Amino acid sequence: MITMTIREARKALGDPEQMFANHEEVLVVCRGKPVARILPIPHKSQLHSLRDFLASQRMQSVPNEILVAEQREEHC
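^ thats the sequence. predicted structure below, dont judge the formating
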């Protein structure tokens, strides 16, 4: 965790890539008391392959033809 004063934070926000380059938490203090905490956005988990993606999807148990026919009957 990085601790910086409000003045340092204002100056660092001019170049946010450098401020958050190491993806750490930043604690902003005023006269020694914490006033803000800046956290990195968590990365989304990415699937490594199409096989992993397909394995994570629910499989439909009823064929599409039956679902479409049922919906058509409901609307008529």
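The CA atoms of residues 66 and 72 lie 10 Å apart.
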